[in-house]
Amino acid sequence: MSALSDCTVIIPTRNRAEDVRVTVEKLIEAGLQETPMIVVDDQSDDPDALKAAVSRLPNHRVIRQEKRTGQAQARNVGLRNATTTYCLFLDDDAHIDNGDAMLSFMQQPLDSDIAVWRFETIREYDGYRDGLPADLAAGFIPTFIGFGVLMHRERVLGVGGYRDFFCYRHEEDDLAMRIIRAGYHIRYQPGVRFIHRHSGAARDDAEYAFLSARNIFLLYALNFPLPVAPVYATLKSLSVITKMRSHRGARCVGLLKGWAIFLKRLGQRTPFSRAQLAAFKALRADLNSRIAACTTQ
Known about the structure:
alpha/beta
């Protein structure tokens, strides 16, 4: 039995006690059950089932939200309640595939200018790797996803953590932009693998559509410089609305709501400077070039 050095595993969840139970079993199989774990319960209907799902871990804590807030705030709750330098984020339906590699990674010195490390993530039923090919080399990247990521807790909280009002969808992209704006890096680190079992349980498709259109607007409206920000953000949201036929009404309402939030939160914008935006776009172009050069897609 081992524990990841100076690290807490954080899992946000809602109504997925069985998924959490499987993730806990996988953590035990990987020999990492001594690692502290914080499970943030975003108002599950059966909190006792969730507590039972993690009961085999000796160093776990379940924090139940007083009201449903979404993944963004749940992840912040985990970050703020952890006491370790690093936090490893898992989705409730994802698990570490090679615990030894994760242990080895945590035992080496980690760079002082990196806020987030993203590892390999593989969808269980078809092998999809979330856009990053199997032979992509380690290097800096412009964003990350919600699981299979290691965060330096103080650096991430120092830029404000996740914006709670994003709820979910594009909250990682928003945080990534603010991390890069602050002068930190996000690094892709192959060799440590995470498996996404991809449960569809308890997902509201209409809500997902609404947040997709709303949050992609907010992502660019809050982080790109004026005067282009709201125009570019609107075009990006309209692209989401026109490309996806399902729940188009919810997507249209999402765009309107995005505008309302943007106008209310003008003082909370964290825009790139022109030079920072150019560097960010260059980072995205570099990743696309590296992906195109890979032999596996």
